[in-house]
Amino acid sequence: MGLVPERIIFDNLSAAVFREKNGQRKLNEKFQRFCEHYRFEPVFCNPAAGWEKGNVENKVGYERRNLFVPVPTILDFDQFNQDLFEACEKDMHREHYSKGIELATLFESDRKAMHPVNPKPFDIDLIENRICDKYGKVRFEGNLYSTSPKFAKRSVIVKAGSDSLRILDENFREIINHPRLYGKGLESMKWVPYLELMSQRPTALKYTSFYSELPQNWVRFLDSQDYDSKKKALNLLSEMLKEHDMQIASRALENTLALGVSDLGSIRVSYRNLTCQNHIARPLKLEGIAPEVPIFKPDNSRYDSLFDNAKVRS
Predict the structure, then answer these.
(1) Per-residue pLDDT tens for 248-291?
(2) Where exactly are the structural domains of the chain?
(3) Residue 141 — pLDDT band, cuts 50, 70, 90?
(4) Which sign does the torsion angle of CA 37, 33, 110, 77 carry?
(5) pLDDT tens, 27-77?
(6) How far apart are CA 305 and CA 311, in angstroms?
(7) Contacts for 287-293 with beta carbons within 8 Å, 24 or more apart?
(8) 308 exposed, middle or buried (CB, 10 Å; 0-12, 13-18, 19+)?
(9) From residue 192, how far is each of 70, 198, 242 by CA, in Å?
(10) Residues in contact with 61: Cβ distance below 8 Å, sequence separation at least 6, in sequence order
(11) Fold for domain 3-116?
């Protein structure tokens, strides 16, 4: 709405309030900061007094019957929410069941009693300190997230949202951003910071603890290269991973080697063939019989006549 009511009524949800031993309510710290950030007074229903929020419960039933029957299949939450919002906007143009006034008119009356919303969003992300392992990786909720080799055994800050997980240094500067993993034993690995370090010291590559985690076809390929080629190969791999994942980079190398070549230019071409949206050029196949071209046989005697003419003129 872009506006905030002076008071908002809540049920006694545990995320917002908890009861102390004397029966008094106490606000959750983050919820209290949320109320202060947007400047509204939270009011809570009485326990076991369902009639206090009966109108809200009826409205939930109305929306369920009219907007969620049949049960929708949601493939894109952003698009679904947009469609849902538009449906609710259209529903505002009907009369209130008892007041006989259009809902949109009543809503505009309510808006005049509200104050502007704080333009700065309230940060709801979970923030925790973590220590990276010897590979520079952070464990969060049973899953691993990479940072950079230089953060091995160092403290970092994890800022977890619903769909992303940002890792920050001690000055709250972003190190890297991962999609948040849901499950156990999963890993999100972003190789670019590691490859940038490897390319600076390619001779020490095989002694780094994370080198063995590269796909085996890339390990074998890098082992076969000299110093300069290894450095260029690492830079090329880093370039590919800035645009796509390691699976694409491995397929590009595999396709190149299958053609019997191994130069970096050919690897780059294979990568572009896999990722480019344009049509890939194919070898031209001629159908039918090509027209016969007459064979020209040179006659050297013609050149001899030129020399004879030159002698006469002289």
Answers:
(1) 999 999 999 999 999 999 999 999 988 887 656 666 776 777 77
(2) 3-116, 126-186, 193-275
(3) very high
(4) positive
(5) 888 899 999 999 999 988 877 666 777 788 888 899 999 999 999 999 999
(6) 10
(7) none
(8) exposed
(9) 46, 10, 7
(10) none
(11) Nucleotidyltransferase; domain 5 (3.30.420)
Q: What is the pLDDT of residues 172-231, one digit of tens each?
A: 999 999 999 999 999 998 888 888 878 887 777 666 767 778 889 998 999 898 889 988
How far does the chain reach from its first CA to its final CA, in angstroms? 103
The reported pTM is: 0.58
Q: Is the pLDDT of residue 168 over 80?
A: yes
- From CA 40, how far away is CA 3, in angstroms rounded? 11
> Half-sphere exposure of residue 83, counting CA atoms within 13 Å on the CB side?
11
Question: Into which CATH architecture does domain 126-186 fall?
Answer: Roll (2.30)
Structure tokens at 300: 């050297």
Asked if 106 and 99 touch (Cβ cutoff 8 Å), the reply is: yes
Report the interhelical angle of 216-223 vs 246-258 (nearest 10°): 60
Q: Which residue has the tokens 């027209």?
A: 291
Contacts of 289 (CB under 8 A, 6+ apart): none
SS3 state of residue 137: strand
DSSP class of residue 112? T
C-alpha span between 178 and 192 (Å, rounded): 13
Instruction: Say how far apart CA 228 and CA 208 lie, in whole Å.
Output: 18
